[in-house]
Amino acid sequence: MKRVAAIDCGTNSIRLLIASPGPDGLVDIVRRMEIVRLGQGVDRTGRLAPEALERTRVALASYAAQIAEHEASRVRMVATSATRDASNADEFRVMVKETLGVEPEVVTGDEEARLSFTGAVRGLSAEAPYLVVDIGGGSTEFVVGASTVDSAISVDIGCVRMTERHLHTDPPGSAEVTAATADITAAVDRALAAVDGGRAATLVGLAGSVTTVAAIALGLTSYQPERIHHARISYDDVAAVTARMLESTTEQRLAIPVMHPGRADVFAAGALILRTIMDRSGMSSVVASEHDILDGIAWSITS
């Protein structure tokens, strides 16, 4: 059976999926995530930091070994927000080619949104059309469609970018939260207008900020993807988790059993983005999905 390898390199994390296509969808062989914070400081400096590039190289070398071990016939690596913004993106491309053996594709926000949608809606049984939101480290993608994409946009709000731009104290002060909320609201309103988000029947949320909100709202004592995938979380629960996270220190967030250590310092901003999207779209609930752009990348190379 043909195996493919997909790599999603975002602002905060880099993820690997080695899978085979099956009659009911992708069959996972390896699914991994490492927090490398590639976008560290990019919003301020416009450049990828040397230490961030090195963290990413180390993770990629490990991924390359697993790809070889499992004899994947096709490999596609997609790089997103941080590398679109960086003036030294060429250094990143050279490093990836030397480490992985393939060129990274620095995709547009529109293509990122379409890949996320493809990964999210396969196997989803909820009322269409969908508003799919992928909250990343540097950007958030908004996509509306049913079986295919009708409209998509990417805006520069993400958990790392908003934390670095606004949430400087631990926990953040009220003025910082107000400034972040205003920034996020302006971007969300622009995105919802661009994709006609008001006509969507179901909000689907992707990536670690959303799935971690879901895990906390569900009261899980360990991170259980099978419980989180397609769980429907109410607005009230999202708002409660967000308020709690904005009032917590990073150390307090680290003590939450489902919290990935590499996410704790930026998680409050991610939850705030999700809450604001629900506020502005009027959605009463969000369906969390463990399948996202990584699955979309894999599907794109299975044929």
UniProtKB/TrEMBL annotation:
Family annotation (CDD domains): ASKHA_NBD_MtPPX2-like
Pfam families named in the record: Ppx-GppA (PF02541)
Record's keyword terms, sorted: Hydrolase
Residue stretches making up the Ppx/GppA phosphatase N-terminal domain: 23-287
Keyword Oxidoreductase listed: no
InterPro entries for the chain: ATPase_NBD, GppA/Ppx_hydrolase, Ppx_GppA_N
Single GO term (MF): hydrolase activity
Lineage: superkingdom: Bacteria
The protein's name: Hydrolase
Organism per entry: Phytohabitans aurantiacus
Taxonomy of the source species: Bacteria, Bacillati, Actinomycetota, Actinomycetes, Micromonosporales
